[in-house]
Amino acid sequence: MIRFVVLSRQRSGSAFLATSLASHPDIDCYREIFLPKNSDADAYRAYRSATLARKLDYMVRRQESVNGYLVDMYAARTDVSVLGFKFMYSQAKKYPQVVEWIKANDVKVIHLIRSNTLKMMVSREVSRSRKIYHSSQKVSQMKVALNPYLLKYRLRRLTEQVEAYRRLFPDNPYTEVIYETFVANRQQETRRILDFLGVPEMVSLESALVKINSDSLADVIKNYDQVVRVLQGTSYEKLLA
Prior knowledge:
Blueprint: E1 2-8, H1 14-22, E2 27-30, H2 44-48, H3 52-60, H4 62-76, E3 82-88, H5 89-94, H6 96-104, E4 108-113, H7 117-130, H8 151-166, E5 174-178, H9 179-184, H10 186-197, H11 217-220, H12 224-231
Parallel strand pairs: 1-3, 1-4, 2-3, 4-5
Helix pairs in contact: 3-4, 4-6
């Protein structure tokens, strides 16, 4: 079986990519199985809490606990030839044991990056306020205000974070997918991703999820004019487009 992870951060289009990959008959991609609040039956939280022995392993032998979970997860899926899961930056920080397992098992890494970090930031703020993170149908639009004094600092930190995670798996099979490019050139990017995963059959990858925020920043940022003034003349000005 070919194993892979979609490495990314929240509000970068990872759910869209994961569901698109899972639409291929030979591929499945779990969502955030290492999300601490994920109580689904197939999530790590359910696995580590199932028995007293597993609870003890989680507390004192975390690496063995993670290894056992992932080995069992992959062994149970004989219905597909390619299987992966979403792995967020925050989860890599919380579970370095997963990082070690990925490194030790030569897992393929698809690093999904949203190049417009301003839109990603806005998407995060809107989702938190609306309390809707993904949807298969359109939702009502809303606006959020951004702190202009912290804006450049936050954008710089997001850029630095991407660079750090680019270096996380230096020896693994690795490819980068830019979210904006994947959306704009679906067929070309699909072929490239399937080639990377070693899947010969070219099929159209589809997702039931729809974009829930306007692509126009002026439509979703309450203090848009103030944000423009802060970013004009800086390296972040291009993010306003």
